[in-house]
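**Polypeptide and fold**
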Amino acid sequence: MFGGIAAAGVTGDELMVRVGPAAAHTALARSGARVFDINGRRMRGWVVVAGSAVTEDEALGARIDE
């Protein structure tokens, strides 16, 4: 939580990260990232990161700090 708003979460073996609309393009360019959608509806400002891309603590921290 950041200021009472969800900033990151886990679904299955993937990481969901709120990066905001301005940073989404940059975040999606990183390895393992994809658009976060629910039932075909794109969630603006959120990305999903494959669990295999965040197996190390440093990689996980970097994604959350995006």
